[in-house]
Amino acid sequence: MPRKPKRDAPVAALLSILVPGLGQIYAGKQERGVALLVAGIIVGTLALIWQTLFITAGTRTFLPYRIVLTIYTLIFWGWQVVDAYKQAQ
Predict the structure, then answer these.
(1) pTM beyond 0.90
(2) φ, ψ (nearest 5 deg) of residue 5
């Protein structure tokens, strides 16, 4: 069985910083990359709708939710960058 050539791990990480899932696709894990890309689009869209609803409602409890959403986003983004790096090795 022929082995796939290894990809440059820092390039995979950089691509994932730019677009979630792109580093995985570059590393040869197309299904995983597309799943992360779709998940990022869905979560991003839902977050945008959610924030818009809170802003429109004028609620003062919006800040804690925004902080939680930001932390979740940073954890997801960081994880998928590290994953792209590892997939390319």
Answers:
(1) no
(2) -65, 145
